[in-house]
Amino acid sequence: MVEPRSTDVVIAGAGYVGLATAVALKASAPHLSVTVIDAAPTGVWRNDTRASAIAAAASRMLDRLGCWDSILPEAQPINEMIVTDSRTSDPVRPVFLTFNGEIEPGEPFAHMVENRILNASLRAKADALGVTFIEGAPVDGFEHGEAHLIVNYADGKSLATRLLIAADGVKSRLRDMAGIKTVNWEYGQSGIVCTVAHERPHHGRAEEHFLPAGPFAILPLTGNRSSLVWTERTADAERLINEDDFLFDAELEQRFGLKLGELRVEGARKSFPLGLTLARDFVKPRFALAGDAAHGIHPIAGQGLNLGFKDAAALAETIVDADRLGLDIGSIAVLERYQTWRRFDTVQMGVTTDVLNRLFSNDSVPVRALRDFGLGLVERMPRLKGFFIRQAAGLSTTAKIAAGPADLGRGLNYSGLGY
Ligand SMILES: Cc1cc2nc3c(=O)[nH]c(=O)nc-3n(C[C@H](O)[C@H](O)[C@H](O)COP(=O)(O)OP(=O)(O)OC[C@H]3O[C@@H](n4cnc5c(N)ncnc54)[C@H](O)[C@@H]3O)c2cc1C
Q1: 162-198, pLDDT tens digit by residue?
Q2: Mutation choice for ligand 1 from 109, 305, 311, CB with most ligand atoms inside 8 A
Q3: pTM of the full predicted structure?
Q4: Ligand 1 midpoint to CA 168 (Å)
Q5: Where are the domains of the chain?
Q6: FRET label pair with 277: which of 143, 191, 301, 349, CA 20 to 30 Å apart?
Q7: pLDDT digits (tens, 9 = 90+) for 246-280
Q8: 16 CA distance to ligand 1 centroid (A)?
Q9: Which of helix, strand or coil describes residue 401?
Q10: Which CATH class is domain 5-75+112-184+276-366+397-408?
């Protein structure tokens, strides 16, 4: 394939957010040329053993982008969710809060989807829409021209563009290159992620066990399998990851229990250091951040990727609108609309997950009593529970208000993406 010398939009990063942005742009404005450049070699995502909770708002968007049909057969609906709060060694984990998983009849508030399936679907759609890919080629710099940017990648190659979108993850090098500062701190915790096969069916039930080191989430996958997001202090997580199978399984069993029968870890165990990173600006002239490059949050509420999908939809809407009006898609006046649209929602979610993590990842007796009282109160208030479910589904009123003017009854409507 001949690589283009210039393109309307360059997206650095072929992760979920970079791909979703490319698809959303090409679906609404096929005449715009879009090039995605990724540091990783082709197909590396096939080894991603993680799974994500995809909120209803995000699955509606993926549906409008023509991706959901290929994902749905391999997506596990979350039919029910329980929340417990106990010490690791406690023999029983009393349930403080239960949620019925539907936001509308027949529509669960979230599905669990394996990341490789999500990526394959977005990638196939991007290819079909004519997005150009350059892989195994990190973006290593960019310079401002008259009415364009020159993006440098892979040791000396370059490409002129009207707009560079950085979707290069939480440690974004492009964010640093653009001189954008962050608010950032580490939690001293890591999330151990692995897939567990079990003897008995989970019936679509998700479980969030609050333990002193942090949340231990059991998230249902298709078949008799679950995905774990197991938070530990970073040193303990490193020890567990390198533990031999017998000792790891014993630690797992203590937290998971045997209610689903014998457990067997499938594939690799990985751990991810957890922190909060919020970019102070999302845009500069001809430059925009999206996804984890703009906001890395704690996975306690499973919302990181869902926020990134909202960025993708809002950014695509902003660019397509400007293009329709004949405006310069890389001008700061255009890009500030995207920033205003997305910043409040992401800061709000970042702060919420931070507070939840501090409240639930500790063993202080008064704090435990207070939070258990709070959970019990929510359990007795169906309207409040309904509010939390809509938050988790990405369909809350505050998310809509934060999103800006294009608010339709069933969520947001970015360029007809039906989000
Ligand atoms: C333990 C854990 C569990 C999670 N669970 C959930 C969940 O259930 N639900 C949910 O919504 N979210 C969840 N998240 C968050 C979610 O995984 C992230 O929000 C999401 O992966 C971010 O996607 P992204 O595309 O922004 O970045 P990434 O997935 O990090 O992709 C970045 C891409 O940029 C590329 N890249 C990097 N540098 C360059 C460069 N210089 N040039 C070109 N390309 C580059 C990389 O190769 C990569 O392909 C979880 C996170 C963790 C850590």
Answers
A1: 999 999 999 999 999 999 999 999 999 999 999 999 9
A2: 305
A3: 0.91
A4: 8
A5: 5-75+112-184+276-366+397-408, 80-110+185-274
A6: 143
A7: 999 999 999 988 899 999 999 889 999 999 999 99
A8: 7
A9: helix
A10: alpha beta
